[in-house]
Amino acid sequence: MARSRIRRCPVCRAYTLRETCSICGAATVNPHPPPFSPSNKYLDILLKIRRNMRENKPGKDINTPSSSI
Fold it and tell me: Which residues form the signal peptide (predicted)?
């Protein structure tokens, strides 16, 4: 499988082939998730992180309780 060269800016979410974003100048990251293996020794940590990310979605303030109207 060929390694992907495409990168993504976490700030403005633009895709590029460069190490820095040409739009905002931020450092780019690999947009692809790491490979998943059930025998991974860090599986429990990965699942905790994913669970927390699902519960605390971006844009949701985790410090204020949700109000039911």
Answer: none
Burial 22-46 (b: 16+ CB within 10 A, else e): eeeeeebeeeeeeeeeeeeeeeeee
Interior angle at CA 34, CA 1 and CA 17, nearest 5? 65
pLDDT, tens digit, 9 for 90 and up, residues 26-55: 999 999 877 777 787 888 888 888 888 888
DSSP 4-61: P--EE-TTT--EESSSB-TTT-PBPB--SPPP--TT-TTHHHHHHHHHHHHHS-TT--
Cα distance from N-terminal residue to C-terminal residue, the chain = 51
Prediction pTM value: 0.48
